[in-house]
Amino acid sequence: xxxxxxxxxxxxLIIALAGRFTSxxxxxxEAELNDLLTAxxxxxxxxxxxxxxxxxxxxxxVLLAAQKRMNKxxxxxxxxxxxxxxxxx
Length: 89
Description:
Number of helices: 3
Shape: globular
Structural class: alpha/beta
Strand content: 35-45%
Order of helices and strands: EEHEHEH
Number of strands: 4
Largest sheet: 4 strands, mixed
């Protein structure tokens, strides 16, 4: 799983997620995502899955934890989710 900032301004942070979001990558992805949410507080967050290949239950847990955190400081949306990942949701 590769996580990087795709775009950022005063009100919005777009994070690109690429690759496979599995139990092997969930811990690192969670740390990276938390670091970005801490570094760029009080912004709407959009997770861009256009290069995402797969998400496991461990990846879902990371996203749910991020969403819970965002409920306190903003909002989080997903975009460009492929059908394989959407099926897991």
